[in-house]
Amino acid sequence: MNHNHTTRTLIAGFAAASLLLAGCESMSPTQKGTAVGAGAGAGVGAVIGKATGGSTGTGAVVGGAIGAVVGNIWSKRQEERRVAMEQATKGTGVEVTRTPDNQLKLNVPNDISFDVNSATIKPELRAVLDPFVGSLQGDTAVRLSIVGHTDSTGSDSINNPLSLERAHSVRDYLTSRGVSSSRIETAGRGEREPIADNGSDSGRAKNRRVEIYLRETGQQG
After folding, report:
1. pLDDT, tens digit (0-9, with 9 covering 90-100), for 116-125
2. Residue 191 sits in the same domain as residue 100
3. Total domain count for the chain?
């Protein structure tokens, strides 16, 4: 196989993907999320096609299909959900944002979610989760990820399982309200992913948190 030809093919593929991303500026949020996923997949597909000896066209088609499946979309319903959750959590300290990869993120501080060294959900967190569950009804395309975090106080042998237990508590509450457990992933990061300086009380308070991510994939069903 001619190395120069392969290199030129890959460069052309990535250039096309770059043009696609540039064109996204004029697209709606839903179109943009799907196009970015498909464009990235096509670029990967070109590499797959060459690596496996297949044609560039075949690889791009396969990669485009992969990108369309794994790419998240920001639908009208997602935007409505974001606005509704901002209103429902106003004054609670919960941060509701849209991530760069089109996920709806709820950052829940520990002071309204769990007591110190406890994985039992506080009433304040239930008041946040109940409207969140309501926004999921009838939407089978959504997938959830729940991630627990701690500050640096204490050892890993305490923080790691505690952060996971807290994520599990949120999952169990959601499933008790009718959300399918098959749509939920959980993880505990312990103190490994701080968002503030653990050297101060205010920083440690920000690091003690539960993050809930909601995504709609390009593949419906």
Report:
1. 889 999 999 9
2. yes
3. 2
